Amino acid sequence: MQITWGAPRRNRHHRQRSVCWVSILQATMQLLWSLLCLLAAPLGVLSQLTLQESGPGLVKPSQTLSLTCVVSGGSVTSSYYWNWIRQRPGKALEWMGYWTGSTRYNPAFQGRISITADTSKNQFSLQLSSMTTEDTAVYYCARGTLRRRQCEPRHKPPCRDTGAVGL
User: Fold this and answer.
1) Is there a single domain that holds both residue 57 and residue 134?
2) What is the C-alpha end-to-end distance of the chain, expressed in Å?
3) How far apart are CA 40 and CA 51, in angstroms?
4) Structural domains counted in the chain
5) For the residues of 88-155, what is the DSSP string, one character each?
6) C-alpha angle with apex 165: 51 to 42, nearest 5 degrees?
7) What distance in Å separates the CA atoms of residue 84 and residue 100, rounded to the nearest whole number?
8) Domain that holds residue 34
9) The Ig-like domain covers which part of the protein (predicted)?
10) What pLDDT digit, counting tens, does each position of 92-129 carry?
11) Which of 44, 65, 127, 145 has the most CB atoms at less than 10 Å from its CB?
């Protein structure tokens, strides 16, 4: 499509400049439209976090449960708390532990729980040993809404892990 401004002229150079000018205007309008769409889109749509857990559906008593949670739309190396939670039938949610470069566990599971991360695969895992019928539950992986504090030598007094669960 060719657009000319004012009365048509027979000058070939003028026509080339007009076409070039229109192309620049079209490119600018496309860029502005793209920016408007990006600004108008909800932030959650642009970078939606997805956690996909996998593992066996059934574990026999005395065996070890191993579950993996693959993270997409985010990174396990970020400073968030990457949690494991479970819900036994008819019971409330129960926080099991988190990984955020280091780990913290619910004392109820101490000695038989391990949470690790494989940053190259962007995933974190749960191992719960010595399973019993009391461990029958739905297990969930979740990212906390809080970030851990970033400690730097300039902080006075030096910051420490507060033990916040970060959910």
Assistant:
1) yes
2) 56
3) 26
4) 2
5) -TTS-EEEEEEESSSEEE-GGGTTTEEEEEETTTTEEEEEE-S--GGG-SEEEEEEEEEEPP---TTS
6) 45
7) 12
8) 1-40
9) 42-141
10) 999 999 999 999 999 999 999 999 999 999 999 999 99
11) 65
